[in-house]
Specification:
6 helices, DNA polymerase, domain 1, single chain, mainly alpha
């Protein structure tokens, strides 16, 4: 076109033409971000939950050894049996809710349910931040209702009666 500017026809006003040019500019500017997101979705979306959780866990450098043992136990005994082979791009609120119902049916205590849900939540929020889900898979899920105030801790006096009392 020998360097001459070519008009895109079909716009009724100059404002409409400017809106279209602005839209094209924004699309081009966003392309690298969208490309990076598409690459992350391609890489992690097809990944199995167990593999993704292992990568996530490796990034948890602030965990004390006892916290790491607790995390491993929750993953091994509660989260992985239900979700380890599931592909990351298949998570939604129904899957998460089904996981909670499975723990309820299997008789897991409320504290265990709450802890397992918290770990699953941390992993899925990490994936959501990467852009793997269009919608947050935890949105609308009712978490297990563990209330530590209901726990009864026996007093020392029950085990060591006061002399003469």
């Amino acid at each position: 076109m020998s360097g001459k500017q070519v008009e895109e026809s079909g716009f009724t006003t100059q404002d409409k033409a400017i809106e279209r040019l602005t839209e094209i500019y924004k699309e081009k500017k966003a392309a690298p971000r969208n490309q990076a997101r598409a690459e992350r979705v391609a890489k992690y979306g097809a990944m199995r939950f167990g593999e993704y959780a292992a990568e996530w866990k490796a990034g948890q450098r602030d965990l004390a050894p006892s916290s790491l043992r607790h995390l491993d136990s929750l993953l091994e005994h509660h989260v992985f049996p239900a979700l380890e082979s599931r592909r990351m791009n298949t998570f939604d609120h129904k899957v998460v809710d089904g996981f909670i119902r499975t723990m309820e049916r299997s008789g897991a205590g409320l504290a265990t349910q709450a802890n397992a849900f918290d770990k699953l939540k941390s992993i899925l929020l990490d994936a959501h931040r990467l852009g793997l889900f269009d919608e947050n898979p935890l949105e609308g899920v009712k978490p297990p209702q563990y209330d530590p105030k209901r726990a009864v801790i026996p007093s020392v006096n029950l085990f060591h009666p006061v002399p003469g009392g």
